[in-house]
Amino acid sequence: MSFDEVMAAIETYGYWIILVTLFCGIVGIPAPEETFMVLIGMLAAQFHLDLGWTLMSAFSGTVLGLIASYAIGRYLGIPFIKKYGRFIKITPELWGKVSEKFHRHGKVTILFSLFLPGLRQIAPYVAGTSSYPAVLYVVLGLIGSFLWTFSYILVGFWVGDRLPLEILPWLSVLMVVLFVGAIFVKKVKWKGGSEA
Q1: Is the pLDDT of residue 5 over 80?
Q2: Residue 29, SS3?
Q3: pLDDT tens readout for residues 62-104
Q4: Total domains in the fold of the chain
Q5: Which is higher by pLDDT, 76 or 138?
Q6: How far apart are the C-alpha atoms of 111 and 143, rounded to whole Å?
Q7: Within a 10 A sphere around the Cβ of 103, how many other Cβ atoms?
Q8: Which residues contact 127 (CB under 8 A, 6 or more apart)?
Q9: Cα dist. 170→54, 134, 180 in Å?
Q10: Domain span at residue 132?
Q11: Among 3, 95, 133, 169, which one has the highest count of C-beta atoms within 10 angstroms of its own C-beta?
């Protein structure tokens, strides 16, 4: 989806597109969540959107996505994930890695998984299939959603009147390059440590 298409969708559907985009990103349907939140923060700074409604829409979409994913994992279980997981990019290898980490660090994973692409999509399903206590999951999910959505949107709001909106696609490219670079550095360090 191009920058102009995103702008047209926001102008047409308003706050509903924010809610739906964040919901889709959490359940595993590809969506540019971080870039999108920075964009809507910038739009709020330039008075194209109301900041309060923007924050509430993003927060609501994220929480609904977390609850839906958890419910699918809990009530439809691992057979459903194995059968349909490939459609939302859940591979058996990714499932195994996240499941192992989740069982060791459940609370921290729920709180901060939203900040890590891939982990944020699979962690709610793992929590559901693990029958993680629903009330505790929702409380941690609310806190994590608040931290994630508010931090990105407020960053966008802060830079919104300092940078033109047209620069956002280039910021997206920079974020991807930094993310891939961080993974590469981590793998090189891990290989160097394992050889020692």
Answers
A1: no
A2: coil
A3: 999 999 999 998 898 778 777 777 776 677 777 777 777 777 7
A4: 1
A5: 138
A6: 7
A7: 12
A8: 70, 73, 102, 106, 110, 137
A9: 23, 40, 15
A10: 3-164
A11: 95
**Cβ of 122: how many Cβ atoms within 10 Å?**
25
170: in domain:
no
- Cα separation, 86 vs 131, whole angstroms: 22
**Long-range residue pairs from 49-57, CB within 8 A, at least 24 positions apart, any chain:** 49/10, 49/14, 49/15, 51/153, 51/157, 53/15, 54/15, 54/18, 54/153, 55/149, 55/150, 55/153, 56/15, 57/15, 57/16, 57/18, 57/19, 57/22
Q: How many CB atoms lie within 10 A of CB 66?
A: 27
- Region 155-168: mean pLDDT is 75
In a domain, 185, yes or no: no
Nearest by Cα to 54 from 194, 150, 179: 150
Residue 62 lies in a domain: yes
For residue 196, the model assigns a pLDDT of 44
DSSP per position, 46-84? TTSS-HHHHHHHHHHHHHHHHHHHHHHHHHHHHHHHHHH
Residue whose tokens read 């939203």? 114
Give, in order, the Cα–Cα distances in Å from 162 to each of 20, 34, 88, 142, 159.
28, 19, 36, 31, 5
Q: Is 83 domain-assigned?
A: yes
